[in-house]
Amino acid sequence: MTTARPAQPEQPPRLAPAVSDPDTGGFFAAAARGEVALRYCAGCGAVLHLPRAYCWHCGGWDTGYRAVPPRARVYSWTVVEHQVHPAYPVPYTVALVELAGEPAARLVTYLPGRAALHPGQELSARFERLENGTVLVQWRPADAEEEADDDAT
């Protein structure tokens, strides 16, 4: 007599951000083009992170997004061991990264598993397309990208 194995539950889709938000939509539009972008004030050049339409440095309303280099450094990280959503199986790593060209701007990234990270480690951007079409900027160790390039040759 054979026993049927219980069906594995299908993993739900990853959570997606609201890409039509007037303050952050430009970030996701740039990601869809394969770019990392930050909001800047056209009047004084200040980086507006967290992004807002109004510049709190000079009081200007003329703001927009511009591309920045797709490089960052690890600022801090933690490994999540307790599952809080079925789309994110544990363990996974959540890291705070500071952009190489704009160290005052820090972004959060998700890495599956227990990523081998260290403070100041160089990272490069990669672009992840979710099931609904939203493109996220994710970060991975720069040496992992070099290894992938070596494997391709």
From TrEMBL:
Gene3D superfamilies: 6.10.30.10. Coiled coil: none annotated. InterPro entries: ChsH2_C (IPR002878), ChsH2_Znr (IPR022002), NA-bd_OB-fold (IPR012340), Thioester_dehydratase-like (IPR052513). Pfam families: OB_ChsH2_C, zf-ChsH2. Residues 1-21 are annotated as: Disordered. Residues 28-60 form the ChsH2 rubredoxin-like zinc ribbon domain. Residues 65-128 form the ChsH2 C-terminal OB-fold domain. This is DNA-binding protein.
